[in-house]
User: Which sequence fits this backbone?
């Protein structure tokens, strides 16, 4: 087909002329239609233009630039060059500075409601808020870090070990709680077992092996009571235990005190409010007189209603029938010697040698 050149009507010259190459063809106005093609290598400026009517409405094989807003469909998709954004309906917006907005919320903002996220990679978040009721699929090797964890159901942990307890504090991985056997709870400190509650409900301190017929509390190295007794009125409570030594001295029965002792020792065991004592004393150089023989230095003050008992004696008195009691004098606890008549045994009594041995064992109440 021969080339066709567009013609224009030149009203100034009253001529119909060929459109010169490089000139613009002005198709503005109304009622202008073209059923063919418009091929232009330069810039075509069109007003309101209806393009095509078939299946393919507009085909651009090169670059296309629209300076206004391109609306596709009934405003379902709009390309807004002046705002540098793409709108998909009213739900999704792509913006050059705000990124992606869904429902008016930026994906990088603090508020985003999504019904479901499927991810095969890693999702990183600075925080998580929600009930967690449907939070599943967390692998066993995944660490979940949280400031506060509230669990209304059942939490299952690994059994753990002495060196690596299953429950431990931050920064101290070898101290905590672990489960060494069925129905057994153990507590570790510094990688060593400190205590456990075994399957029979026995509390074991310092040992992991229970004595089969032992009590509910079993220890490996004794029980320490406070230095000052914390008295308890409960009849089933042991509130004190103490062992020690004391130094017995001749307290009276002489005008001149002993210059030395060949033997001078005492031991005691205190269980609750009862004290059990032993005495081994042999004074030297004492000059006896007519005062009652007493031995002082007892480790605890005697109760006013104490029922003292001397269970064993080696007497420095050659007279049979002497007895002993324990009491206080001006706040000083002592052992007093009585003769067979119930009177205090005098230091210078006949047959008495206060510079001799006396051994006693007994008990009293504090």
Assistant:
């Amino acid at each position: 087909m021969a080339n066709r050149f567009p013609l224009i009507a030149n009203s100034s010259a009253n001529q119909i002329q060929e459109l010169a190459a490089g000139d613009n063809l002005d198709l503005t106005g109304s009622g202008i239609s073209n059923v063919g093609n418009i091929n232009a290598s330069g810039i075509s400026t069109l007003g309101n233009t209806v393009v095509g009517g078939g299946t393919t409405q507009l085909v651009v094989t090169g670059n296309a630039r629209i300076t206004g807003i391109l609306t596709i469909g009934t405003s379902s998709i709009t390309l807004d060059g002046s705002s540098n954004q793409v709108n998909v309906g009213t739900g999704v917006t792509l913006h050059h500075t705000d990124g992606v907005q869904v429902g008016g919320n930026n994906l990088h903002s603090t508020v985003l409601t999504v019904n479901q996220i499927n991810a095969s990679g890693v999702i990183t978040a600075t925080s998580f808020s929600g009930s967690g009721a449907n939070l599943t699929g967390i692998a066993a090797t995944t660490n979940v870090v949280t400031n506060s964890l509230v669990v209304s159901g059942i939490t299952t942990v690994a059994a753990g070990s002495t060196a690596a307890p299953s429950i431990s504090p931050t920064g101290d991985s070898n101290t905590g709680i672990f489960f060494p056997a069925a129905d057994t709870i153990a507590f570790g400190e510094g990688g060593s077992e400190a205590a456990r509650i075994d399957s029979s409900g026995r509390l074991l301190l310092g040992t992991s092996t229970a004595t089969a017929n032992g009590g509910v509390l079993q220890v490996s190295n004794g029980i320490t009571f406070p230095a000052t007794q914390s008295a308890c009125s409960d009849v089933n409570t042991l509130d004190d235990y103490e062992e020690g030594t004391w130094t017995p001295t001749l307290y009276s029965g002489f005008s001149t005190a002993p210059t030395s002792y060949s033997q001078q020792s005492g031991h005691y065991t205190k269980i609750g409010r009862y004290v059990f004592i032993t005495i081994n004393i042999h004074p030297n150089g004492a000059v006896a007189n007519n005062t009652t023989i007493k031995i002082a230095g007892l480790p605890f003050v005697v109760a006013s209603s104490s029922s003292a008992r001397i269970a064993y004696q080696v007497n420095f008195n050659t007279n049979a029938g002497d007895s002993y009691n324990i009491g206080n004098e001006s706040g000083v606890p002592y052992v007093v010697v009585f003769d067979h008549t119930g009177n205090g045994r005098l230091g210078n009594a006949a047959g008495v040698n206060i510079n001799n041995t006396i051994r006693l064992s007994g008990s009293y109440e504090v």
About this structure: The mean pLDDT is 78.
